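Please produce the structure of this protein holding protoporphyrin IX containing FE.
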Amino acid sequence: MVLWGQVLGALLVILVGYLCLPGLLRRRKPQEPPLDKGSMPWLGHAIAFRKNMFEFLKGMRAKHGDIFTVQLGGQYFTFVMDPLSFGPIIKDTQRTLDFVQYAQELVRKVFGYQPTEGDHQMVHSASSKHLMGDGLEDLNKVMLNSLSLIMLGPKGWSLDASFWHEDGLFQFCYNTLFKAGYLSLFGYTKNVAQDLLQAEELFMKFRRFDLLFPRFVYSLLSPREWLEVGQLQRLFHKTLSVEHNLEKDGVSGWLCYMLQFLREQGVAPAMQAKFNFMMLWASQGNTGPTSFWALLFLLKHPEALQAVRKEATEVLGEARLEATQFFTFKLSALQHTPVLNSVMEETLRLAASPTLLRAIQKDYILKMANGQEYLLRQGDKVALFPYLSVHMDPDIHPKPTTFKYDRFLNPNGSRKMHFYKEGKKIHHYNMPWGSGVSICPGRFFALSEIKLFILIMITYFDLELMDSDTPVPPMDPQRWGFGTLQPRHDVRFRYRLKCME
Ligand code: HEM
Ligand SMILES: *[C@@H]1O[C@H](CO)[C@@H](O)[C@H](O)[C@H]1NC(C)=O
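Below is the modeled complex.
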């Protein structure tokens, strides 16, 4: 008995030593960025980081300046905070920084998907073909029909739609965009009413997964939540299975292209379902929340709403529905909305907070814009967090926390693309989609669908906040670094269809 205790104790010491030793022994070498290991062995700064990444990085920047290395859960991350120095990392001309390998680890854990060779390239080819250019025009039509179906019901508008409806704005936007986006990309069956019910049910499961997601990624779930995530994953795999796919018509060209590639690679059906789950997540996790922020900012800024409405009337004419009609819409109008485009850029500046991560494959010299050179160590990760270092930089964007709907417009009404830091023109002045090899391949479709939704909301509907004095809710700090932020609580609003009596 006593002996066992000693053996276990010794094992524990060895284990802890093994985990902590690299951290304890690590010293800053000449030419390396400032190193901050934190006070906890192995964990380093993980607790503060997970609690509030934005505040943590702000503190580190104040302490160490524009580049520093921190320990987080046994791994070392070098954060580069000077956007004038992003170029070499994003372009990676020396080919020493790797995105794919790190992303694959995450994908395995979160979606159960085991990537195959060439996946990353394939997703980007499929997206260039079907989520941009001509392919996007087709998808926009499908999206318009889906939005009609969801917002008006399968038979076109009924009298019911012309009464006031009250809802949470976040809930409403996320629910609508999710269902429309899901059905447009993953297809319909012959029974549309059934499809709508199924999409509604899937959204509820999706939201549950979404709420657990940040702590799941950080391995902070309670045992019960852990079980729940497992159940949700299995449910998604089943709902998005290959057999169910076969029953569907009108699966998007985007998904068909990708699934065909996987079949040709000999990827098993069960693994294809996991791939579908990953794509559901990538395509639906950010658009709903982004639409929420855009509509909320418009409702809180009457001058912005008025400008967008004016532009909408110019490109679309007056919109009024007759009984049993669907939305009609000149989709080409989406190309002629500089004011709404600026609203979207501004919304994403304020609400999208991605982290860009690259694994350092061999020791690497990073030359900063000020000429200073730093040695980045093989095996570490290099990380960018543009929300803090770009979006909220008052030099690039004066009064950075204020919503200015025309921030991205020139005085003559064209798109503004010239921004400066320290008097130098800056290329990366807004980075909601990431950048370089990992840039979001769905960004053009995302913008189209959100713009379509907003144009429908402001032309076909009356809408207002229940309490016009209600402040913009604070961001949920758990979601820093995970794409579009979510509000800490919802905001009540009401809407009703404008229609011909
Ligand atoms: C406002 C909405 C959206 C935002 C803010 C957004 C943002 C992002 C960001 C920041 C990444 C890069 C992640 C990284 O570097 O690891 C990403 C990746 C991705 N996004 Fe989006 N996204 C949006 C909508 C969409 C839509 C609608 C689709 C597809 C229909 C989509 C498909 C993807 C895919 C497939 C990837 C992974 C690409 C890869 O592996 O390189 N996204 N997105
Ligand atoms: C509008 O103004 C910007 C700079 O303010 C300029 O670069 C652009 O060429 C102008 N466009 C037109 C159509 O006049």
